[in-house]
Specification:
By secondary structure, the chain is an all-alpha fold. The chain has helices at about 10-30, 35-45, 45-55, 55-80, 85-105, 105-110, 120-140, 150-165, 170-185.
Length: about 190
Amino acid sequence: MATREQRPLRADAERSVRTILEAAEKVLAANPTASLEQVAEAAGVARTTVHRRFANRQALVDAMVRNVLDQVEAVIDSGHPDTAPPLVALHQITANVLAVKLGWPFAMQESFAPGSKWAEGQRHINARCVRLLTRAQAAGLLAPDTDLDWACKVYYALIGEAAHNTSSTDPQLLATKVVETLLHGVGPRA
């Protein structure tokens, strides 16, 4: 967890940071211009506690983004993209990523912002997507001539749209829609 000093935190300090990050997500998702004081109030901690952990608002946002990117990497890992059957991995990773995206919309948006300093993390995630789609292609789930970079972009767009879906917030249901649309489109099936 990125904090001011970049040294391991005691368990109570780790819980405090987690509480601040979660409160910041809720506050900033509702009001992106909210102050650190508003974040502290929502977290139920003193303003000085927030300032002790984060030098300024940007440091807090950076910690939120680092946290969400770490979560995304962890949920991708938990889907076993290199060993599980490609369709199983694709569905599980999609559901896992949607759960993070639904829970951390502000931080996710910041991590994908154009010109983001998090571009290296995004490149790493994209490379993992291409590897998984390469496995899916080899398994016959995607056409042999599929442009996999384009397929990843379409996949990300589908995840983004699913996260903005107002009819369901169930990551498993949304993942099914995303994967079905990615693999079969919306046209009639033969």
